[in-house]
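protein under study:
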Amino acid sequence: MYEIEFTPEALKDLKSLGKSEQREVIEAIESQLKHEPTVETRNRKKLRPNDVAEWELRIGRFRVFYNVDDAVHVVSIEAIGFKVGSQLFIRGEKRKL
């Protein structure tokens, strides 16, 4: 089982969401990333090299970007963003990954 840690930036991203959205994202993170976070699924994929994270978890319109340290079984949540159409926003900025 993997331990889940949030960076300070990811905690700010989470706090910027509404309470029900926070609950939805946290529940998905816990159910999807505690076991086998590096196995690709329909909602989980490895990203091309970028400056945010190695992996992405899709939760409806939300996107959770994370890195995995298999040596110590830690999942580090780096950022939480959302999509509007085909555009991704992280911390209020339009991003391209």
